[in-house]
Each structure stands twice: as structure tokens, then as C-alpha cells.
Amino acid sequence: MDRVRRGVTAAAALITVSGLLAACAASADSGKPELIWYINPDSGGAAKVAANCSTDDYTITTQVLPQDANEQRIQLARRLAARDSGIDIMSIDPPFTAEFSNAGFLAPIPQELQDKLEEQSFQGATDAATWNDQLVVAPFWSNTQVLWYRKSFAQKAGIDMSQPVTWDQIIGAAAKNGGKVAVQANKYEGYVVWINALISGAGGELATDTEKGLDLKLEIDSPAGEKAAAVIEKLAHSSAAPADLSVAQEGQAAGTFGGTQGAFMVNWTYIFNSYEGSNPGFNKDIGYARYPQTVEGEDSRPPYGGIGLGVSAYSQHVDDSMKAIECLTSPENQEVNAEITGNMPASQAGYEANDDALQKTYPADLLQLFQDSLDAAAPRTVTPYWSDISGGIQSRWHPPASVNSDTPAKSQSFIDDVLHGRSLL
């Protein structure tokens, strides 16, 4: 924990004068308290539920964090390490929950609210929001990836998408029939999401014994890690690889899938409604299935993503902020956010709130696939040292064309050196 505190405290020195002035202005007493909620970029869902949850006692306003998850972490960590009171509520990506809690940045959630949130939330959402046996953030939305495919291409390729498919099968089908397999393989967090899902799908984990802190056990150099590397190596050296593979994020993958060579894509829930505005009727050619298997016959472990809402330990309005996150994460507001953004609720009740509004937007079998995939999803390792692990993986597994059977061992050795101060990212 001391190491985490030292790192974020050093980062705090980089805060600009303008940022500090903004924080002072935000906390100025102007009558009714204004709760400042730092959100990840979306399509207006957070602003809508903030308006829904503003009361006669306080107003909730939003400030948008950077697009990149790592940059979101850095901006929040710098300000929290400086005990900046200009943040009341924050949207936190699951991999960084343990780090923020371990550093003392999060105000404890009252036990009564913890119990309520645990009762309403999917188990995966609860697990991602928990550190040291305490729920430290409130699950807001839970995302997962599924395998999207073009029905016309699958028919041409003669691949039966009603049955589980493997990465080898879809890469082979795409290569033989002039198609592309769209993934996220830029040097960023989304690439680690893919690697983690591949390793988990082969029965492995990135790390275990995380309660031991720096003495956690890295598991990347393993048969599961080798199987994951083999999938990436095969795609990277196949004609099914998009030309922009090494720089592809969610948007680039969606562009490939929507193009003339679009065949298969792994991507998040919000992708389904991203085409109709520019390409009416395209959704009729979109099929969907469970995330591909790493190993034939072994159930896949789809990626888990989402957002939890944390209250800053340095907020001047902690009690009001706790009331606010209870409202913001209610099933009704989870559904409102999902309908606007495509980021699905963190609770079963959220899928059924507001007169089943989601059922009017998404096919029933797709909503069921989302929920089934969440039940089977593989979260990234919950540890305060996730940023070091993720950064080490990105460093040694990128670009995808460089991945081979030696990559898992090399990356594990490098990450171990980073964790123990023998190497720098």
C-alpha cells in the first residue's frame, strides 16, 4: 500500500494550477450543495440519471474524464492523492477499484447500502466492486463482449453459428472466404481484456494470491498463456487479420466489421445499435453468439467490463454523495443509462425496469445472451497492482505480430521485475 501511495503522491505533483483552481471553485459554498460526478465518456446517460437524482437537497453535475481508461485513472489518482475536494463521485473502471480503495481514496460505503447493492447486483458486478471483503464502489453498469458475425458471411463460409465456435474456427473461416476478424489489439487496456479472456478461456488466470500484495503469484507463463499466445499469433499472421490490427480499438473494430470484408468481431454490448444511423438495415445482417472458445470443448470466459461509482474520501459532501449513488445505481436509472448508452445494467432488475424499455430496443435472445455472458465472464485480476500487470502485458505482447510461444514467459518475468522494482515500464 505504501508503494501505491508513493506512486500516486508523486503523480499528484503534476496537477496544474488551473486544475486546483477548478477544484476550489467546485467546492465553493453556493447554497445548495453541488455534487460533482466525474464520468467516463458516454452518450448522455450519466447526465440524464444525474438529473433524475438531483434533489431539493443537492444537485448532481457531471464532468467528463478522458476516453482512455488509463488516462481516467491517472487524472483521478493525481487529484485524489492531492486530497482534492473537488471530486465527490467518480466512475471507476473495475481494474482500478482495488488500487483506489487500497490507497484510501474511497469513502466507506455504509453497511446497509452495501447489503442493498449486493442483493440487487449480478455476482460478477459485486465481485468487481469488492476489495478486502467490502463493497467499495456501487455497481452501475456491467458490460460484456459477445461474438458478432455477419449472417451473410457465415452462410457463405458454411459455419454453423448455432453451435459454440472456437477462435481457430472463425479465423480459418474468415481467411478462406476473404473476411476479417475484428478485435481490439492496440497497445492499451482493451488488448489486455482480450488476452485475459483468452487465458481464462483456457482455464488459467493472469495472477492468483492477490491478497499477498507484491507476493502475488503470476500465472501468465502457463499452458493457458501459451494457448492464448497461439490464438493471437495465428490471427496476426493470417489473411483474416485487419490491416489496422495493431492499432485497433473498439471503434476501429466496428469499422472493420461494418466494411465489405466484415465477418466476425468481438466487442461490447453497445455495438448493436451503432450502425443503424449511418447504415439503415445493416442490423438485419448482424448475428450474435457467445464469445469464441480458446480451447475446443471448453466454455469460453467472455470479458467483463463495467463501471462502479465511488465516493471520494476527500469530498465535503460524503453523506449526500452516498445518497446520490444509491439513486444513480437504482435499477430504474441503470435501465435509463442502458437505453441511452448501450451499456447494460449491473442488475437483473435493471433489465426489467421502466416497462421493459430495453426489450423494445434489443431482441430478447440478445438480452439473454448478454446476461448469460455476464454469468460466465472473466474479470481482470483484482489487485492494487493491476496497472503494473496490465502495462507489462501491453509492453511484451504488443504488437500482436510479435507474439509467439515465448511471449508468456518473457512477459511474466518482466512483470515480476516491474513489481519488485528491478525494471520500469
TrEMBL record:
Gene3D superfamilies found in the cross-reference section: Periplasmic binding protein-like II
Family of this protein: Belongs to the bacterial solute-binding protein 1 family.
Keyword terms, alphabetized: Signal, Transport
UniProt cross-references to SUPFAM superfamilies, sorted A to Z: Periplasmic binding protein-like II
Top-rank taxon, per record: Bacteria
Pfam families given in the database record: SBP_bac_1
Record's protein name: Extracellular solute-binding protein
Signal peptide start and end residues: 1-28
Transport is among the record's keywords: yes
